[in-house]
Amino acid sequence: MAIIKSNNQNIIKAANILKNGKLVSFPTETVYGLGAIANNDLAVANIFLAKKRPTFNPLIAHFYSSEDVFSHVKKNKIAEILAENFWPGPLTMILYRKDKTNISLLASAGNNSLGVRVPSKQIALKLIKLCECPIVAPSANLSGKISPTEAKHVEKYLSKECEFILDGGNSNYGLESTVIDCRNDIPIILRHGPITKEMINDKLKLKEDNDFILKTNSKNKKTSKGKLLSPGLLESHYAPNTPLRINAKERLKNEVFIDFGNSLKINRPDYVLSKTEDLTEAAANLFSILHKADEQKQNSIAIAPIPMKGLGVAINDRLIRASTNKK
Ligand code: TXA
Ligand code: MG
Questions:
Q1: Which of 61, 189, 190, 301 could bond to 179 as cystine, CB 3.0-4.6 Å?
Q2: Averaged over 254-283, what is the pLDDT?
């Protein structure tokens, strides 16, 4: 692990490391990110492992241009206006994924939405361009710690987990991007940041007293006027439509069985999360296998016990939320 100057040669090196499925920390205009190539499930799973995140929070995908963004997520009028005015820059929009996108489902935590942004930092843009693929990146800190604004902060947090830290000096903003959910007619700010409510309001020509802003950290998901948002609008946990049974040790009738490895000796499980019982590989496969199991439209989906260590903690967290037998 090393802090490396962001010259052309090193940016090329970093792009090659990313393309090989490894992690690289890189500067953006907001904070430093911990990047993985967006189309590689295992690389994306390694981000959660490196950050020691106990849950699969969805990740932001970083693109070279607005045009690239809208080839992966669905465009609408609001997104178009905000993209025109604030990209490249510190604004993340939550939009619906297009069916054909190759961006890892794990970056969306299994949901049909994706956080997208076009950063303005040249080093970040060069890196994305060389990868010929978007880069997903959370802030490059350990879970629960403050975001890094200098390369040496990243080194402090992630010296073992990250091969390469591109040094881009101090972050310009030192504050994470504004996150705005643009999937509905009423855009909702989920995280305040450098692009303010007033700046957004001005471009969208919404009335001054519109109630599209969530109170920061509001647990009840109320707007600034106290109006409760429609349930499901901010749904962030993926659950299959088919009832899900967790910690299952045998297969019931008309049931799809997802095994962790092979230790249960289940007769031909429908899916196996990781033949070698590797929890990072299991995490990488989790959401795509759940989606496939759901498509089979059986009476139920059963999933074998997953060990509570490493990424097993995050896998179990998601499975408990998605399951019908929550004990
Ligand atoms: O400035 C930034 O946004 C930095 C740089 C590296 O781009 N990234 C960053 O990522 O702060 P992260 O993972 O630390 O924070 C992203 C936030 C999280 O609160 C996450 O829950 C939310 O954005 N988010 C991402 N995708 C989402 C989605 N599909 N739906 C709802 N929230 C999402
Ligand atoms: Mg963060």
A1: 190
A2: 92
